[in-house]
Amino acid sequence: MSGTSTPGGAGPTREPFGARLAAAMAAHGPLCVGIDPHASLLDAWGLPDDAAGLRRFSLTVMEAVGGLVAAVKPQAAFFERHGSAGVAVLEEVVAAGRETGTLVVVDAKRGDIGSTMSAYAEAFLRDGSPLAGDALTVSPYLGFGSLDPAVDLALSSGRGLFVLCLTSNKEGHEVQHARTDADGEAGPTVAALMASRAAALNAGAQPLGSVGLVVGATVGDAAERTGTDLTSVNGPLLAPGVGAQGAGPAELAAVFGSARHQVLASSSRGVLRAGPDVASLRAAALLAAQDAAAALS
């Protein structure tokens, strides 16, 4: 995350997240490496399931892929499970991203209302907060408008959001595929409504807006079936599920179609299982980036 001083010392400025992400994807390929320190992965690396093991794991990943891939995505829950010491490690990961010029998407899926949502936004999107990466995942299922504090702070600080839209968990359809009620008639699906709200915020942005969507790479034809126009979003599409979770070129083409150029493919286990050797992790990340680029071309 880069910043420069404005004239008169008014504080840091940065390009909008969407523009910075587009540049990073062009330079390094459309890959985001998920940093998901499951207990089983720590064990596979020969590390203890504690804050020290978490720190060794996470900083080893950053040493391997920092400056090499478009983005990393630390999953906040796996840091929070270790309490304050784990959150301190998450702060180190965010700082390592800044030092290596690698975009950091903090995967915390925050969603609430009013002052509570404002507090989440301050924690993860405010300049000077040690948890503020370059983007944050958020949940809109208290109504898209409940995200306004995060939207406002993200856009004013040059950061971004990834809004949950079509997720690959088997329960997701209960909410995301449901149809809204418009004057007593069936309206658009909830997923389509979320996409349209993001599209409105991204209108006119070049080359990409900063309010993206989370769309699972394994959702099949869900976008088509729910009437969700991913191309018109004009923002990045974060696609978990690439690699070890089953999504390859055919699945990516089926899910995203003509919106493939907007996709930031997320892979975690496919890269992380190559550790703890730094060179092996780096090679796995490079291969995953090449595969993602080929699949999304």
From TrEMBL:
SUPFAM superfamilies from the UniProt entry: Ribulose-phoshate binding barrel
* Record domain Orotidine 5'-phosphate decarboxylase: where: 30-284
In Pfam terms, one family for this protein is OMPdecase
InterPro entries with a match to the protein in the record:
Aldolase_TIM, OMPdecase_AS, OMPdecase_type-2, OMPdeCOase_dom, RibuloseP-bd_barrel
Which one of the record's GO molecular function terms can you name?
A: orotidine-5'-phosphate decarboxylase activity
Q: Which SMART domains match?
A: OMPdecase
Identify the catalytic residues. Answer: K109
Catalyses:
orotidine 5'-phosphate + H(+) = UMP + CO2
Entry superkingdom: Bacteria
Endpoints of the signal sequence: none
Alphabetical keyword list: Decarboxylase, Lyase, Pyrimidine biosynthesis
Pathway assigned in UniProt: Pyrimidine metabolism; UMP biosynthesis via de novo pathway; UMP from orotate: step 2/2
Q: Where are the transmembrane segments?
A: none
* Entry EC number(s): 4.1.1.23
Show the NCBIfam families listed in the entry. pyrF_sub2
Q: Which family does it belong to?
A: Belongs to the OMP decarboxylase family. Type 2 subfamily.
State the HAMAP family in the record: OMPdecase_type2
Protein name per the record: Orotidine 5'-phosphate decarboxylase
Source species, please? Cellulomonas fulva
Gene symbol of the encoding locus: pyrF
